[in-house]
Amino acid sequence: MTDVIVIGGGASGIMASIAAARAGAKVILLERLSRIGKKILVTGNGRCNLSNIHIDSLYYHTSSGCDFSYPFKYMDYKRTEKFFEELGVLPLIEGDKVYPFSEQASSVLEVLRMESERLKIEVHTDTKVMGVFRKRHKWHVVCENQITYEAPKVIVATGGMANASFGCDQTGYTILKGLGHTISPTFPTLVHILSTSPYCKMMKGTKVKAAASAFVEGHLVRKEYGEVLFTEDGLSGPPIFQLSRVASKAKYENKKAYVALDLLPHMSYDEVVSMIYSRIASFPMRTVEELFTGWLHKRVTMPLIKYARIQSMHLKGEDLEYEPIARLASSIKEFIFETEGTRGYKYAQATAGGISLEDIDFKTMASKKAEGLYITGEVLDVDGDCGGYNLQWAWSTGYLAGTHAAEMHLSNRNEE
Ligand SMILES: Cc1cc2nc3c(=O)[nH]c(=O)nc-3n(C[C@H](O)[C@H](O)[C@H](O)COP(=O)(O)OP(=O)(O)OC[C@H]3O[C@@H](n4cnc5c(N)ncnc54)[C@H](O)[C@@H]3O)c2cc1C
Predict the structure, then answer these.
(1) Distance 385 CA to ligand 1 centre (A)
(2) What distance in Å separates the CA atoms of residue 122 and residue 247, rounded to the nearest whole number?
(3) Is 354 in the pocket of ligand 1 (CB under 6 A)?
(4) What angle is formed at CA 56 by the lines to CA 53 and CA 62, rounded to 5 degrees?
(5) 237 pLDDT above the threshold of 90
(6) Cα 171 → chain centroid
(7) Closest to 224 measured CA to CA, from 204, 244, 240
(8) CB-ligand 1 contact for 97 (6 Å cutoff)
(9) Angle at 252 between CA 263 and CA 342, to 5 degrees
(10) 0.90 cut: is pTM over it?
(11) What is the pLDDT of residue 305?
C-alpha cells in the first residue's frame, strides 16, 4: 500500500520523496518526462548552484504578505550541506554561492537518484498527472496513461512555467486551482530584459561593468551592480537577471519601466565632468570619440555620444562647450533603456507568482484547502534571486513536506 504519492520529479519532488521515504513511508514519484531531475542538469550552467550560504527570506519575492521563512529554519543551508555531504557531494563555495565540488550538476542528480533507489522509492517516468480527487480518505491521482494511483497523502511539486523543455506546463496550477487554491498572477523572472532602445543592437555582444537600476513609472525599484551584456534585443547578464522580475511585472501590469545604467558608478556626476575636462586639457586635438579611448569600452563610446546628442563624432574635444560635456557626463551616469518585458518563460530560470501562500501551512507545507495534500517548490508564489536561492527553496519545502506527509500518515496509521 502506498503512503505518499509525489507529483513531479524535479528538485523539490525528489527531495520530498526522499524525506518521506526516510520517515518510513512507501513512496511513489510520478514524473511526466522520461527521466527525473532533468532541470537540475542545466542549473548553474551545468554546475548547479545548489544553495547559498546566506539563505534569508530577504532574497525571495512573493505577492503575499505571509511569513514563509519556516522552511528555511527547518532546512537551512547547513542542513542542506550536511544532506548532500552524507550522499557524497562535497560543497564548493564561490563568494556566497554553493556548488558541488565536482562542478557537475549531474553529480547532484546522481546522488539523489542513488538515494531514491536505496530507499526503494517507486519512480514512474513518462507519467503525466492529469487530475487528483479525494474519495474515502484517499487521494486518487489520475494519469494521462489511464492509470490511477491511490494514497492517503499527496505532494504536488510540479514546478513553475519556466523553460518548458524541462517538463513544466500549467497542469500543476490547473489541478490545484480545481481543488480551491488561489493563483497569484505569474510572470517569468531571472531572464533577459527586452528593450526598445536602438543602442542595444549597436552594442550587441559587448559586456560592461555597471550599476543597473530598474525604474517603474519613474520610481527606483531595485539596483544591482555587475557585468551587463548588450544583446540584439535588450540587456542580459547577472545584474539584469536580478532586475528582470521588475521589468516582467511592470509589463504584466502595463506600467512604463526602464533600466538606467551607470557606467562609472564609483564616480559622481561632478567627478565625471571634471575627468572629461581634464582629458580635453591633456588631449586637446582628440575628437570626442577619441577622448574616451582607454577610459570607456570602445563599442559603448559611439552610442553614448549619439545618446548625448553630440552633433559630430569628429568634433574636437577642445571645441566642446559646457552643455554637451554635461550631457555626456549625464549619459555616462544614466544611460536609459526603456524595457518591453522579458524574453519570456522559454528563456527564464524561474516563475514569479503561483499558488497563493495564504493557502499553505508553512509549518508542514500542507494545503489549507485540501486535506492530506502538500505543495512545494516553484509552483508556489515564491521566487528567489539568482544565486542558489531557488534550489534551496525547492529542497527546503520538499524536505519539510515529505517528512510531514509521512509522519502524519504513519502516526494516524499506528493509532488506528
Ligand atoms: C536554465 C536554468 C538554470 C537554473 N539555475 C539555477 C541555479 O543554478 N540555482 C538555483 O537555485 N536555481 C536555478 N534554477 C531554478 C531552479 O532550477 C528551479 O527553481 C527548481 O528546479 C524548481 O524546482 P521544482 O521541483 O519546484 O520544479 P521543477 O524543477 O520544474 O520540477 C517540476 C517537475 O514536475 C514535472 N511535472 C510537471 N507537471 C507534471 C505533471 N502534470 N505530472 C507529472 N510530472 C509533472 C516536471 O516535468 C518537472 O520534472 C534554474 C532554472 C533554469 C531553467
Answers:
(1) 15
(2) 42
(3) no
(4) 135
(5) yes
(6) 20
(7) 240
(8) no
(9) 45
(10) yes
(11) 96
8 A C-beta contact, residue 263 and residue 329: no
Q: What is the pLDDT of residue 231?
A: 98
**Atom 47 (ligand 1) nearest CA:** 167
* Ligand 1 atom nearest to CA at 379: 26
Domains annotated on the chain, with CATH? 4-188+350-415 (3.50.50.60), 192-343 (no CATH)
Q: How far apart are the first and last CA of the chain?
A: 16
Integer Cα distance of 334 and 67 in angstroms: 36
Pocket-testing residue among 35, 39, 45, ligand 1, by greatest number of atoms within 8 A of Cβ = 39
Q: What is the sign, positive or negative, of the torsion defined by CA atoms of 115, 118, 123, 125?
A: positive
Q: How far is the CA of 247 from the centre of ligand 1 (A)?
A: 22
Q: SS3 for 91?
A: strand
Tell me the backbone φ, ψ of residue 104, rounded to 5 degrees: -125, 120
Quick: pLDDT tens for 286-340: 999 999 999 999 999 999 999 999 988 788 988 999 999 999 999 999 999 999 9
Nearest CA to ligand 1 atom 46: 167
**Ligand 1 centroid to residue 43 C-alpha, Å:** 9
Sign for the pseudo-dihedral over CA of 230, 232, 236, 240: positive
The answer to whether 8 and 121 have CB atoms below 8 angstroms apart is no
For the segment 152-162, the average pLDDT, to the nearest whole number, is: 96
